[in-house]
Design a protein that fits this description.
This protein is mainly α. It is elongated, with a radius of gyration of 28 Å. The termini are far apart.
Length: 251
């Protein structure tokens, strides 16, 4: 039929049967592949993967800039320069610095939830005090050392409110978890005192973590040992643990 021949000719690019550039492009990137996706699905997937890679690149650059300059003194131009892209490319993904900080903060908070959730796993907190401190504190300290931008974004008057609010909520959740662990070890202790002890543990941990973050190498490892020793000596008389104190050792 003439109509059928005309349709076939148009699809192949003309009487000679050579495909048009549009048809060739569709054949390479847009037809259903082995996965059985609909026509045109491969290109959007590739574009999405490139977009995610670009976002990750920008967030890594933002983390570096925030750590170097602080949140307030950082700019989108500095972040774009650190990422090796133009400001225009950055604005394709984020409208401003606050949006970058919120996205980075959300991702870091999600990873922090996973980290502390695993650190307070029941199998870890049932160990003797010295080993429990290792099992709980090591992943928490490692996370902060590997992600210094986390500390920058969780503190400071200029940080977007959404980040600090979520951090405060998470802090309260962690404090409740610490209280529940203490209550199990101190069944006859009034709840108010358990709360005070949990608060004190948090303050000791935060102060020790600041010192740990301020040093590197062997000196950082020495401060990790000092933090664990301080917490052990504070908690051992309360929980009745008679394990030998993990005295700090010279590197």
């Amino acid at each position: 039929m003439p109509e059928a021949r005309a349709d076939k000719s148009a699809a192949t690019g003309g009487a000679g049967g050579a495909p048009t550039p549009e048809a060739a492009a569709e054949a390479v990137g847009g037809t259903a592949g082995a996965a059985g996706g609909p026509a045109g699905s491969a290109r959007p997937r590739r574009r999405q993967a490139r977009g995610e890679a670009r976002i990750a690149q920008l967030l890594r650059a933002a983390a570096s800039v925030f750590c170097a300059n602080g949140y307030t003194a950082s700019s989108t131009n500095a972040i774009a320069r650190e990422a090796g892209v133009s400001p225009g490319t950055l604005y394709q993904f984020f409208p401003n610095k606050e949006a970058i900080a919120v996205e980075l903060g959300d991702r870091l908070l999600a990873r922090w939830r996973e980290t502390y959730g695993a650190a307070f796993d029941q199998s870890r907190i049932e160990q003797p005090l010295d080993r429990m401190l290792d099992a709980v504190l090591d992943p928490l300290i490692a996370f902060n050392c590997e992600n210094p931008a986390f500390s920058v974004l969780m503190h400071g008057s200029e940080i977007p409110g959404r980040i600090t609010e979520e951090h405060d909520t998470l802090h309260a959740t962690m404090l409740t978890r610490v209280e529940s662990v203490l209550a199990a070890h101190l069944p006859d202790t009034p709840a108010a005192q358990v709360h005070r002890v949990a608060d004190m543990i948090f303050m000791i941990f935060k102060a020790g973590l600041d010192l740990i973050m301020a040093h590197e190498g062997e000196e950082r490892a020495a401060y990790v040992r000092e933090l664990k020793a301080a917490l052990f000596r504070y908690l051992a008389p309360l929980v009745g643990d008679d394990s030998p104190s993990p005295a700090p050792q010279e590197p």
